[in-house]
Recover the amino acids of this structure.
């Protein structure tokens, strides 16, 4: 069975709950107008926490095939953790996915691989799919250490995750130098690291599990560059930031199969 591509729009701290419903509605219309096959590509939006209830209400009422998720989750199930959101709360809101370890959380909130591994665990144990972000900074790539660095992140994040849980995760390879910069990795760059991640997953969890797991590329993905990246063997989708805020552009990204050169 081949892997169904996933296009996930990370809205970051953009769009209030009213803008969120308008954006999801426009995305849905754009895809519907193009007779988009939601069984061929999974489409997800990842709004701020404050938008999730509104997105849930819209998606449920209009029976949309768009899925959604959070941008972060607590490692703790409940209690005195001011400002945190638990996996159970996300489940109650119908979330299918949650991002863990985005480079902006690593950079601005000091998140470590160990913490990110705990968040990924909290998600899978609650039935949510974590989208685990990994990827190197520019200085590391310039030294030619990007593969080793990214694989070390995989080892550290997945270190505690058991064989039966790991295949429930999605991994997003996001070179930090390509996030929000307009600087996109070449398809060969993306394949080099995504292929190495799959090999490492095979040695951790076996070939069959590694074959099932989806590995996304993220970093300045746009309608104009998505097709060539998606043509690579080990790239199973995109984690899309800026371009996902424009529903027409994001719909084109989701329709990548139609514009393969
Ligand atoms: C991201 O935020 O995960 C991302 C890849 O952003 P952008 O697409 O804007 O580079």
């Amino acid at each position: 069975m081949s892997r169904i591509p996933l296009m996930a729009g990370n809205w970051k701290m953009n769009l209030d709950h009213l803008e969120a419903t308008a954006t999801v509605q426009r995305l849905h219309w754009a895809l519907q107008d193009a007779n988009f096959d939601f069984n061929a590509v999974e489409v997800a939006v990842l709004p701020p926490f404050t938008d999730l209830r509104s997105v849930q209400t819209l998606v449920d009422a209009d029976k949309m095939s768009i899925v959604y998720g959070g941008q972060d989750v607590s490692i703790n199930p409940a209690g005195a953790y001011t400002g945190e959101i638990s996996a159970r709360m996300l489940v109650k809101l119908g979330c299918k996915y949650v991002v863990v370890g985005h480079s902006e959380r690593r950079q601005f909130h000091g998140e470590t691989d160990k913490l990110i591994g705990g968040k990924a665990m909290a998600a899978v144990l609650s039935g949510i799919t974590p989208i685990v972000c990994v990827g190197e900074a520019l200085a590391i790539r310039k030294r030619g250490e990007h593969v080793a660095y990214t694989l070390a992140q995989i080892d550290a994040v997945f270190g505690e995750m058991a064989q039966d849980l790991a295949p429930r995760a999605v991994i997003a390879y996001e070179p930090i130098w390509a996030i929000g910069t307009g600087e996109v990795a070449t398809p060969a760059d993306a394949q080099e690291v995504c292929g190495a991640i799959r090999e490492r997953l095979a040695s951790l969890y076996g070939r069959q599990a590694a074959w099932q797991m989806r590995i996304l590329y993220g970093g300045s993905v746009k309608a104009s560059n998505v097709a060539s990246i998606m043509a690579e063997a080990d790239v199973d989708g995109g984690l899309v930031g800026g371009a996902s805020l424009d529903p027409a552009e994001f719909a084109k990204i989701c329709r990548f199969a139609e514009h393969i050169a």
